[in-house]
Amino acid sequence: FFLIRPQMKRAKEQKEFSNSTNVGDMIVTTAGIHGKIVKIDDGTLSLEVDRNTILKMDKSAVSMEMTAALRKKMEAATKA
Questions:
Q1: What is the pTM of this model?
Q2: Residue 6: how many CB atoms within 10 A of its CB?
Q3: pLDDT tier at 1 (50, 70, 90 boundaries)?
Q4: Which of 6, 20, 67, 69 is 20 to 30 A from 78, comparing alpha carbons?
C-alpha cells in the first residue's frame, strides 16, 4: 500500500496537468521537446517547435516536472 499510493497520486496529478494545458502554453514533453501548444483535439495536441514545424502528439507525452522547471526558469529570466 505504501508503495502503490504515492505512485497512483503522482499519476493522477500528471493526468490532471495534461488535461489542464491550454492553447498557447509553453510545454516540455517527456522526450525533452520544447514547444508551444497550437491546437488541442480529443486526446492529442499539436505542438509548434519552430516556425512552420508542428508535431502532433498524445497529451500524455507532456511532462509535468519538466514543464514546471521551464516555467520557473522563464520567470527567473524575466525578473533579471
A1: 0.75
A2: 9
A3: low
A4: 20
